[in-house]
Amino acid sequence: MFLSHFKFTSQPFAERVTAEALWQDDRMQQGLARLRYLAEHATVGLITGPSGVGKSVLLKRFLHELSGPRWEPVYLHLTHLPAAGLFKLLVSKLGEVPRRGKDRLFQQILDKARQAEGALLVVLDEAHLLDGDALTDIRLLISSALDDTPPLKVVLAGQEPLRHTLRQSLHTALLNRIAVRQHLSPLSKPETATYIDFQLKQAGGSEKLFEDSTKALIHDYSGGIPRQINNLATACLLQAAAENAARVSEPILRQTLGEFQLP
């Protein structure tokens, strides 16, 4: 409804966009620098942050860069599966028919890594959902591949509980192998305003569409979490279009909040 009202050329605040159109800031640049180091020199990386803060955006940008024969990236997000199910899924993603037995699954993955023209890089998103057995098996898999060239590389990305889990004595060996770490924090108030402006410009709109005070309030209500900013800004645009308003003002935002309760 608001696309035609505000004459956008595309959907603003959409999560599904091309890698080139994704938001970048200092957090993303630092994260990309660490992941690039992992791709070249390290074995295990850890990306953490609250839900909706931009972890998947960072991973999408990173995976987009891994073109050419030097790497074979595999992205998995169904990390709630039991350990055996997770490794079966990984084997399937590698184009193989999973065999029975964990040892055989391990061997299939290691064989595929050795046969790959470049380094096999496995990205496990939502890794805070991994159970203890899966984390132990990931560590064993990594240890088994250390003498191979190119080695198997793993990125664990998840919410804050993942860091607490890895600090348990049971996972000390895996924690000690993590050479690359990045924690994504929410956006500051100025960064939130810049983020809103970026999203509007990407969609063919004007940064003046949202009043400055409205952007500041959106930050306060969203906590600087990009996904929440997207949801709230979209709701504001819908409300403004329904009222035939030319701009998103504080009253429109406050009216929206009456029906749009953030957690």
Describe this structure in words.
- The protein contains twelve helices and five strands.
- It has helices at 2-5, 26-41, 55-65, 83-93, 102-115, 132-145, 161-166, 172-177, 189-202, 212-222, 226-242, 250-259; strands at 44-48, 71-76, 119-124, 153-158, 178-183.
- A five-stranded parallel β-sheet has the order 2-3-4-1-5, sandwiched between helices.
- Strand 3, helix 6 (132-145) and strand 4 form a beta-alpha-beta unit.
Overview features:
263 residues, alpha/beta, 11% strand, elongated
Summarize it.
This protein is α/β, with parallel strands linked by helices. The protein has twelve helices and five strands.
Globally, the shape reads elongated
Physical arrangement of strands within the biggest beta sheet: 2-3-4-1-5
Mean pLDDT: 89
| Percentage of β-strand residues | 5-15%
The largest pleated sheet is described as: 5 strands, parallel
Separate helix tally = 12
Parts with pLDDT < 50 across at least 5 consecutive residues: none
Structural class: alpha/beta
Question: What's the total number of strands?
Answer: 5
Give the fraction of residues assigned to helices: 40-55%
N-to-C terminal Cα separation, in Å?
26 Å
The arrangement of helices and strands along the chain is HHEHEHHEHEHHEHHHH
What is Rg?
A: 21 Å
